[in-house]
Amino acid sequence: MIRLSPSSKIKYSVGEIQNYLNNDVYHIRSIFFDVCYFINCPLTLIIAFSGLYMELGVNAFYGVVILVVVFPVNYALTKISTRLEDKLLKIKDERLKLINDVLSGMRVLKLYAWEESMEQLIAKLRKRELYVLRQVFLMDAGINVSFQLAPLVATLISFYGYTVIQGNPLRPDVAFVSLLFFGMLRLSIYMLPRLLTDSIKAWVSSRRLVEFLNAEEMQPSHILRETRDPALPIVSLRDCSFSWTGVNVTDPNLQLKNISLEVQPGELIGIVGRVGSGKSSLLSAILGEMERMEDKGEAIVRAKSIGYVPQQPWIQNKTLRGNVLFDSPFNESKYTSVINACSMGEDLKLLQAGDFTEIGEKGINLSGGQKARVALARAVYMDAELYVLDDTLSAVDAHVGAAIFANVIGEKGLLANKTRLWALNSLAFLQYCTRIVVMDKGEIYDVGTLRQLSDQKEGPFADLIREFMEKKLESQRSKKSSTLEVTLDDEEDSELSEVLGQLSGSPLSESLLERRRILEQQLASSENQQPKEMVKAEESKAKPSETRVSHQSSHQSMHQQGGVSVISDNAYAGDRPEWTEVIGRLTKDEELATGIVSRRVYLVYCRSFGIFLAIIYFFFTFFGVSTSEALSSVWLAKWSSAAINNTADSLSHLLIYGGFNLISIISSAICSIVVAVGAYNASTYFHGKLVSSLFHSPMAFFDQTPMGRIMNRLSYDIARIDENIPWATSYAMSVFAEALNSLIAICVVIPVLVFVVVPLLTIFLGIIHFYNVASVHFRRLTSKAVSSNCSFFQDSHTGADSIRVFNVVERFRDKNVYICDFMNESLITEIYTNRWLQSRLDFISDCAIFICVFVAIIMADYKWISLGVLAMFTGYLGQIARVWRESEVQMVCIERVSEYINNEREPEWNTIDESRNWPPSGAGHLQFKDVCLRYRNELDLVLNNVSFDVRAGEKVGIVGRTGAGKSSLTLALFRIVDPCSGKILINGIDISTLGLHDLRSTLTIIPQDPVLFCGTLRLNLDPFDDYTDASLWEALEKAHLAETIREIEGGLDYKVAESGANLSVGQRQLVCMARAVLRQKTCILVLDEATAAIDPETDSRIQLSIRSHFKECTVLTIAHRLNTIIDYDRVLVMDAGKVAEFDSPNALLKDSDSLFFKLAKQAGISQNEREEI
């Protein structure tokens, strides 16, 4: 799985591979448990036919002929069943693929109130799956009935030949011994449908697994890796073409063409271009992550080790220190140096348990900037020869980015002597790059120094610089016309001046300076506006504490250097302190039930199956099947008694005997149909309830529960409910009914055997109870191990590219072997307990046979009856033990699914009263009144008495250091987490009185991390089908993505790969922008650094689109860069969970004591500008 090529990774989604892991492997594993039956059944058939031949002579072969005739019919049914099973697994793949996407994007789903839409999509796939499953059940029922009918017909024809044709009397010794052999024949043939069904599943699964295991893997030949030679380029590409799909395609997102590039040791190579131009693809090609199209030219990387920082950081579910070390040995001084250089000192101060704080899956309890710095620290710590950095600094604050560049990437940083390939959207750092690679439409357009590239007045690079300049000057004009009395040359404008200085004297510089003069003249003519009144909140020293909020200990010592926190050498050194075990823990351990499965679980399944159907099933099983078989045995006894007295009419007795058996078979067919219908009901109920419960679960549940654990419930456990439990429980009821009939027959025919049966039953039940407790516990351990394996698989699949680049594939394989060994230990122990049980049952059976023979000697008149009936009863005891055990262990799946069905639920989705003025028309008036919020009861407040008032239509920027409470404001507004006190009002309505969907449907957020779902682009934009194609294209136009979509095959029906893998991160962000544009009822728009992964030109256009399209909305922008909100109406400064300041940017910058002023100073606003203000 880790070695899959890009084309294979697109073909096989996480959900599909999860299905292979949980279901296909299970089918193949199960068939090995049936190997003994493949040997036992033929031997039993041979013994049974031999015995019948000894008793009935040549008449026994009439039955053989019938069985031979039946097999072609079953072969045809088997072929149909195989096709249905293959179809079923493919639909299951689709469902699990969608569910995996939905769970991965659950936070976005809740923010957009899309749960119902996605639940309906899953329900449609599930309905298709269950329709095929019901066909499989009915086909299995047909196979089962045919195999039951065969021995009956064989028995009737054999008795007909023996009695009617040959005229032999059917004596009791012949009748019951033959019946015993026919019983052996029937039990063996009864196993054949199960073996056939299991074989079909194993065959289909093996074909699927073989296809997957033969899928194309990453080929070392794509990029030749050699040891470093200082005299040769460290990267050498000549006339190479690469593809994500392995074939030539028209989609520019999926291929690179005619790539030629040489990188010398120690160079810092900047890679620039517009969104979707191929920057990240070029880096992936160098890493060997893309497939080389033609075997010409050369592609060589001369580096023993490579450090990789992807654009979307891969964070494991372990401690922060564990993520940085990545299983490398801990070196205290080296670790401290890396932490300081990556500006993580302040983060360690804020995290509850420092670097021992557990980080959730995909870094859910870290901000985007924190995740980026953790990934960077991991790469730096490994001390590689070549570093590949994909837009590393886009998610961090400007001053932090500058510090990281200086301390890590720049000429005086930790990587100063390393070769660095750096794709970036911000052009401010280009002046420090040795050379610059310009990408355009999947090709290298140009390579050169900044000075060399500036000799061209036109082209992609000139366009980027021009748009970069115009964006900054346009930003100044906006500031001038809105809130600022003077022009603010902010941090990025200062960087622009430096860039223009580097271009001085070039043809491009002359063109840019002329354009700048025109824009500045427009700026000078702008009218000043009066600054708004400053409202400064009382400062506080509250200590917020979510997992990324302050916890200081005696082990920690912090100091500041250059505005960036640094951790001292002795901070958190050595082993994990004991207090961190509790404080830093996020993920909950999977709970295990104890003892046997609760009878309540059986009752829940019975209700889902259908009480009426269960009664019908038991009626036909007991009276239709078992009683008919018992009556056929009684009638056979009567027939044989009459035969001794020569008073028997063989033909009439045979017809009545056949009639009883025919009733049994018809009843069995009815029972099979009832099982198919009831299983459909149960499968619909449990899957529907589980999905509904997950969608209604609070976000905290997903933060604390690994996704692999949830997926295990939706794949492995649901599959057992679909396929195993119906037949396990129905077979158990059948065996119980037959055993009960046998017991009744014993009590009626030979009452004295009751004194034998009762003690045996008592011992039997005691053994079974003791065995079931152990067996169920081991099955729970196995299921827990499967969940751990699923979580590890999810984590490994997400970070497969990083695992390959860091060359730790073998390490992860060893970890997987360890987890599988633990899983197999539980499974093997479970098998050992089965053998323990079987040996005890064999002993009980031997005792029963001994007593039966003894009784037969004393009571000669009943010897054949006693032998036959008691032998069958002891056989049923063995079957009861097996089916009882199987039902108990399979019910563990119901127990596990029910645990999640009973999850804590969110408040109601819809509670709107038509008399209330909701949804609001126009912009929203937002008020926070004394809001306090904590993430869990045991944690401290993250918002402490927060109060502010945002007027309708106002544009407000939200700033503050990491952990100040910015994201917590958003979570409170969307009610992802409800405040523990205080109120949030929109247009005077307390949002706690609104349904979650009623609230969220009027709010819109564009998150920092874009989330796309597997399916069409249309689905990702409009999952409810509320809008016309024209509206969708209009939204794409406003998001500046329409041109790209028109160029690719499919347009709106373009298939988006899992997690949007076939789109660049910037393009995914633009899709999220288009989503926001489509939401027409928006009263409040929240932006969370929504354009960080976008080039300056597109960013400029997007900002204009936001200002024009959302001009009637209230806008809240969580800003990592001050220039994005400097022209807003007001700025809300958060500090330590409280409102520190709330006023216009101009007013706050005039106050040298304000926190915003200090943030501006750290961001690089010049001293002259502050004095001027």
UniProtKB/TrEMBL annotation:
The chain crosses the membrane at residues 31-54, 60-77, 136-162, 174-192, 602-625, 654-680, 743-771. Gene3D superfamilies: ABC transporter type 1, transmembrane domain (1.20.1560.10), P-loop containing nucleotide triphosphate hydrolases (3.40.50.300). Pfam families: ABC_membrane, ABC_tran. Keywords: ATP-binding, Membrane, Nucleotide-binding, Repeat, Transmembrane, Transmembrane helix, Transport. The keyword Amino-acid biosynthesis does not apply. One of its GO terms (cellular component) is vacuolar membrane. Residues 523-562 are annotated as: Disordered. Residues 550-561 have a biased composition (Low complexity). SUPFAM superfamilies: ABC transporter transmembrane region, P-loop containing nucleoside triphosphate hydrolases. Residues 235-466, 926-1161 form the ABC transporter domain. It comes from the Eukaryota. SMART domains: AAA. InterPro entries: AAA+_ATPase, ABC1_TM_dom, ABC1_TM_sf, ABC_transporter-like_ATP-bd, ABC_transporter-like_CS, ABC_transporter_C-like, ABCC_6TM_D1, ABCC_6TM_D2. It is found in: Vacuole membrane. Residues 1-201, 619-881 form the ABC transmembrane type-1 domain. PANTHER family: ATP-BINDING CASSETTE SUB-FAMILY C (PTHR24223), MULTIDRUG-RESISTANCE LIKE PROTEIN 1, ISOFORM I (PTHR24223:SF443). This is Uncharacterized protein. It comes from Meloidogyne javanica.
